[in-house]
Design goal:
Helices cover 16% and strands 19% of the residues. By secondary structure, it is α/β, with parallel strands linked by helices. The chain has a 6-stranded mixed β-sheet with strand order 10-11-9-12-13-14, sandwiched between helices. The structure holds guanosine-5'-triphosphate (GTP) and magnesium ion (MG).
């Protein structure tokens, strides 16, 4: 199930109440106040994590609570803190305040996290209030309430390139051909009902992320077809690849189709209309595809590529053109001080602390290969590497 928008209610934990108590013990006269403080309530934390791909985990539950802090007790026992709860969301999730509609935070990078609902502070016990002038305070504080808020989580996929075009143009076929994504493909419109992401490896060190979204049709801004709903998944893409089918089943004019999708894009967001674009005519092995390409090139005044996902014609050219534009944009982003988002777990640079548990020294150091059979005394010089089953000289 692909879910890209949910409304959830958050309730952080209440702080534990402080305790009012006097020490009563045999042989300890006037023991004094000994009420402990309440523990702080747990907070709710949102964290973006690679590998979480949709908001499906939030689809069936509306309310999220963090545990309360425990109350303080006599004999100066402080209450236990409520554990913080972390909710994992995919990178690219925008967190919106449901009540007032403003964006609270945009979690773009892996590992970004923040406290979305703060737990209440625990109340002070009466021992806290003792002083030289007030030696037997009875007062204590009750714990504060935890923050309560409604939020909207909205996923806008992070992709370098967005595929747009009419239904049946061959968007999913292209994605499946050049990446390892396996979207549904069929010869009827609206096969794709939710966005698909694929990583395209151009060479060993170069790759980009491509998003395939459901097809657009004229009137999408009025909700015709699947509407504009999924355009937000290409909003972050710096480059749009516009696929045009040369022979639409409904025999419409490809140039006109191209223009109507352009106006739908502008209708959704003017900035999407101005986005860098590569126009591509698909299904090049069909007769008449080249004519459509020429007609489009003339009408747009720009270069138009011709590809076939079936025969593989023109795919290399398209991939290298996309890669060079993506590279150019990344360079501009780095110059502007923006960070490039990492989208694959293997690309993450992990510090030793993040790599999990540290190994004990005898397993991590130069002695790691030693065993019952292979002992340190078996080696004369330390530079000689220990070998399994080495014979005792
Ligand atoms: N002849 C030919 N057919 C193709 C080519 N690429 C895709 N097709 C066919 O075109 C049809 C539609 O392809 P899809 O990839 O599902 O199209 P889409 O743009 O994703 O369509 P929606 O998901 O419905 O918006 C399928 O029957 C494909 O087999 C091509 O290069 N040549
Ligand atoms: Mg499709």
């Amino acid at each position: 199930m692909f879910v890209d928008r949910v409304i959830i209610e958050l309730q952080a934990g209440k702080g534990g109440d402080g305790c009012s108590s006097m020490r009563r013990e045999k042989y300890v006269p006037r023991g004094g106040p000994d009420g402990g403080n309440g523990g702080n309530g747990g907070s709710l934390i949102l964290e973006s994590r690679l590998g979480v791909n949709s908001l499906a985990a939030f689809a069936n539950r509306r309310m999220y609570r963090a545990p309360k802090g425990s109350p303080g007790q006599g004999a100066l026992r402080h209450g236990k803190q409520g554990n913080d709860q972390t909710l994992l969301v995919p990178p690219g999730t925008t967190v919106i305040d449901a009540e007032h509609g403003f964006v609270i935070k945009d979690l773009k990078k892996h590992g970004e996290q923040f406290v979305i609902a703060q737990g209440g502070r625990g109340g002070k016990g009466n021992a806290h209030f003792k002083s030289s002038t007030n030696r037997t305070p009875r007062e204590r504080q009750v714990g504060e309430l935890g923050e309560v808020r409604d939020i909207i989580l909205e996923l806008k996929s992070i992709a370098d390139v967005g595929l747009v075009g009419m239904p049946n143009a061959g968007k999913s076929t292209l994605l499946s051909r050049i990446s390892s994504a396996r979207p549904e493909i069929a010869d009827y419109p609206f096969t794709t009902k939710h966005p698909n992401l694929g990583i395209v490896d151009v060479s060993e060190a170069k790759s980009f992320v491509m998003a395939d979204i459901p097809g657009l049709i004229e009137g999408a801004s009025d909700g015709v077809g699947l509407g504009h709903e999924f355009l937000r998944h290409v909003e972050r893409a710096g480059l749009l690849v516009h696929l045009v089918e040369p022979m639409p089943i409904d025999s419409t004019d490809p140039v006109q189709n191209y223009n109507s999708i352009r106006s739908e894009l502008c209708e959704y967001d003017a900035s999407l209309g101005e986005r860098d674009e590569i126009v591509v005519v698909t299904k090049s092995e069909l007769e008449g595809a080249a004519d459509v390409r020429d007609a489009l090139a003339q009408s747009t005044g720009d270069e138009v590529l011709l590809i076939s996902a079936m025969t593989g014609d023109g795919l290399q050219g398209l991939m290298s053109e996309i890669m060079s534009r993506v590279d150019r944009r990344r360079k501009l982003m780095i110059e502007a001080g923006e960070e490039i988002t990492v989208l694959r777990e293997s690309d993450l640079v992990r510090t030793p602390a993040q790599q999990g548990k540290r190994l004990p020294p005898h397993l991590a150091g130069p002695t790691q290969d030693l065993s019952d059979e292979v002992q340190a005394k078996d080696f004369d010089s330390p530079s000689q590497p220990p070998k399994a089953g080495g014979d005792n000289a």
